[in-house]
Design goal:
The protein is globular and about 50 Å long. It starts with a strand and ends with a strand. By secondary structure, it is an alpha/beta fold. It has two domains: 2-85, Rossmann fold; 89-206, Hexapeptide repeat proteins (UDP N-Acetylglucosamine Acyltransferase, domain 1, 3 Solenoid). The chain is built from three helices and 25 strands. Strands 6-9-12-15-18-21-23-24-25 form a nine-stranded mixed beta sheet, covered by helices on one side. Strands 7-10-13-16-19-22 form a six-stranded parallel beta sheet, with no helix packed on it. It has helices at 11-22, 51-58, 69-78; strands at residues 2-7, 25-31, 39-40, 44-46, 61-64, 89-90, 95-96, 101-102, 107-108, 113-114, 119-120, 125-126, 131-132, 137-138, 143-144, 149-150, 155-156, 161-162, 167-168, 173-174, 179-180, 185-186, 194-197, 202-206, 209-210. Strand 23 and strand 24 (202-206) form a beta hairpin. It binds coenzyme A. Residues 67, 127, 145-146, 163-164, 179, 181-183, 195, 197-198, 204-205 line the site of coenzyme A (COA).
Length: 211
């Protein structure tokens, strides 16, 4: 059986663990700083400080079950984790076109649909019921929340979070490390580091500051 170490133990992690088990992974360790010390039973529960030793001991592959794009990126840098240490988890209940490419560490949740000629980067979350239409390019560390819809030919640069139920019009370009509010309709391009919300979506913050 394939061994898996899960980093993060939130609600998002519950969904990821369900997917992993359905794909015949055995969860050997769960790491989260809510655990104050390491306890070894059939599954190891531990704070993150023990990550490297647990990787060595178990020889498990990794998945980061943390919704924050920034934190996933920081964690990889802090622990110097390589792409080949990660699995790519795609729920059996997702529909993925054969022409899609998906990077390491990415998770695709139940009900997600990813259509033809889409490229999805590393450490991305395609959440429950999200739709990624043909010819999208989704950068590393992005997160498409539940029921977000990215229509044909959209490009989303790295680190961008698309809120639940947001809709992105065809051919739109969204820059890096943006946040799109829940329920937004994105009809124009969005510059990097912008928070945009509403119908139609308008910029409300730039680099965290109100506009
Ligand atoms: C858009 C969003 C990022 C703004 O969060 P924030 O930076 O903390 O900003 P605030 O909550 O201070 O809101 C700023 C303004 O935007 C408005 N606003 C917030 N979210 C909005 C949304 N989804 N749609 C429309 N307007 C929104 C607020 O009412 C407020 O307006 P006001 O200044 O007139 O009172 C956030 O509300 C959001 O929608 N995040 C996505 C959540 C999500 O889908 N998570 C999925 C997890 S799986």
């Amino acid at each position: 059986m394939k061994k898996l170490i899960v980093i993060g133990d939130s609600g998002h992690a519950k969904v990821i663990k369900d997917i992993a088990v359905s794909l015949d992974y055995r969860i050997v360790a769960v790491l989260d700083d809510k655990y104050t010390e390491r306890t070894d039973s059939s599954i190891i529960f531990s704070p993150l400080i023990h990550l490297n030793e647990i990787i060595k001991e178990t020889n498990g592959k990794l998945v980061i079950a943390i919704g924050s794009n920034e934190i996933r990126k920081k964690m990889i840098e802090q622990y110097d984790l390589a792409d080949e240490q990660f699995v790519t988890l795609v729920s059996k209940a997702a529909h993925i076109s054969p022409s899609v490419t998906i990077g390491s560490g990415t998770v695709v949740m139940p009900g997600a649909i990813i259509n033809a000629d889409v490229h999805i980067g590393r450490q991305v979350i395609i959440n429950t019921g999200a739709v990624v239409e043909h010819d999208n390019v989704i950068g590393d560390y992005c997160h498409l929340s539940p029921n977000a819809t990215s229509t044909g030919g959209v490009t989303i640069e790295q680190g961008t979070h698309i809120g639940a139920g947001a809709i992105i019009n065809p051919q739109v370009h969204i820059g890096e490390w943006c946040t799109v509010g829940s329920g937004a309709a994105v009809i124009h391009d969005i510059d990097g580091y912008t928070t945009a919300a509403g119908l139609p979506a308008k910029a409300i913050k730039y680099r965290g500051h109100r506009i």
